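User: Predict the structure for this protein chain, please.
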Amino acid sequence: MQFSFGQMQFSGFTRPWYLQGTMGGVDPITWLHWLKDKYFIKTPQTFDRVQTFERDSAAKGVSLDGTLVNYLPNDERLEYSTGTKGLLIELTRANLFVDSDVPATQDITTTAIPYTLSFYGTGSIVLSGAHSATLAGTGANERVDVTFTPSAGVLTLTLSGTITYTNFEEGSFPTSFIEGD
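Assistant: Here is the predicted structure, written as structure tokens:
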């Protein structure tokens, strides 16, 4: 069997794409498939018709070629940070790294909770004071990160080499790049 959704043609299915799975033996009435850019609520729909999306601030996301792109407030971030297209929804966090778009060595007061440091580039950041470690970059468009729990005190982040889009945030995993103050 072959059928189409917009300009896309599919074959080999005995049921429409949105009925390829069931939940408790019942066909769902809602499917959101961002990878194939197809959405269904009883009948095929567009993205904007199946959900409401709000975000108060601008944000960054990863384009298909791996570069960071800007998203306006209230624009859904259909982006590629996982290597495939997906809707990026994440917690609200603050970047504690001052001037993160033009990073420089700095001291940050920490408490004994998990923090995550991340950046793009080929340089390195040496952590000293409240925690000791080195995070080394692996490529201009590649992001590296480390999560750690420092002691309460002052953490010195010493930068060298080429480093861009630095995040230092409370939490045990990295979020997308956040413009720092």
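The mean pLDDT is 79.
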